[in-house]
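In response to the reviewer comment on reproducibility (Comment 2.3), we provide here a single inverse folding case reported in full, input and output, so that an independent group could reproduce the run without further information from us. The structure tokens appear first.
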């Protein structure tokens, strides 16, 4: 479990923007937090899985895909900003991600 700092937030945002710019072959300047992953970038759920793997390695995360899947069903992601927010929650809470719903 990692503490999210402003530096972590900026780093995650940069990785996500670069990833989608490269994978979707769009100029990074066309991407912002309100960009729709599907409508604007023609992205898909496999890209989300690739990003999870990138962050699992980068931050040495211990989280199961089924935990992320259960959380994502209740908290679907449509925009780049939502994806960044979810990724920060994954980094911060790892396998305790589902406990966030219990506390709410």
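Designed residues, in position order:
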């Amino acid at each position: 479990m990692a503490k999210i700092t402003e530096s972590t937030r900026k780093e995650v945002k940069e990785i996500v923007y670069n990833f989608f710019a490269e994978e979707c072959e769009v100029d990074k300047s066309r991407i912002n937090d309100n960009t729709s992953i599907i409508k604007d970038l023609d992205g898909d759920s496999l890209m989300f899985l690739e990003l999870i793997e990138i962050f699992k390695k980068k931050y040495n995360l211990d989280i199961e895909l089924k935990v992320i899947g259960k959380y994502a069903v209740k908290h679907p992601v449509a925009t780049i900003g939502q994806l960044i927010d979810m990724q920060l929650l994954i980094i911060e809470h790892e396998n305790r991600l589902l406990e966030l719903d219990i506390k709410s």
